Amino acid sequence: xxxxxxxxxxxxxxxxxxxxxxxxxxxxxxxxxxxxxxxxxxxxxxxxxxxxxxxxxxxxxxxxxxxxxxxxxxxxxxxxxxxxxxxxxxxxxxxxxxxxxxxxxxxxxxxxxxxxxxxxxxxxxxxxxxxxxxxxxxxxxxxxxxxxxxxxxxxxxxxxxxxxxxxxxxxxxxxxxxxxxxxxxxxxxxxxxxxxxxxxxxxxxxxxxxxxxxxxxxxxxxxxxxxxxxxxxxxxxxxxxxxxxxxxxxxx
Length: 252
Fold this sequence. Notes:
252 residues; alpha+beta; 6 helices
């Protein structure tokens, strides 16, 4: 919005003071408020994991396209050990436009989800397949083993996940790894490019960029081989301040 720019939202579902949702630059103010209220120190990210899966189709048979369509996300572990965060890129309003139904929460198919109740009315609108947003969801799992147990519970052609895989896990080596700093990286990344494209700027390209930056591994590429030929690494987009105007491109 004009008051809180940036196509990033954060669902603080495990916040002890009650569930909260913020978007744009307001995610930073929301975090600071939570820390003041709870009298906790700034969380530091300690480990990252890549997670990929195909979507369950309600028992319908997968076609050729579905068999190569994988959603990819990055899981972050924090030093407080209270919960993890799922970080993903997807089409703009893709969750809000579907009544706040998220695979990361047990109430996905409830008549009214907790996420939908937390979302302000201004973000509930039809999704746009050519525009992107970054979504961060704080989930109940505290570590990778607990997250795997949750995924296993919902794996199957009539459930949520098909062929879940965890191809990479590592310690976070990036020096500036606080939750607030990570929020700024995500805002910067979206400020640089707000487009969405299955072939060139999708969940898989974002996950490769973000995981690669966090763990310091330049060999990371999109999960599925079909997307690697069109992939261009853009780790630098996390690092440049979104609050400063971009300089116009000049030609020699």
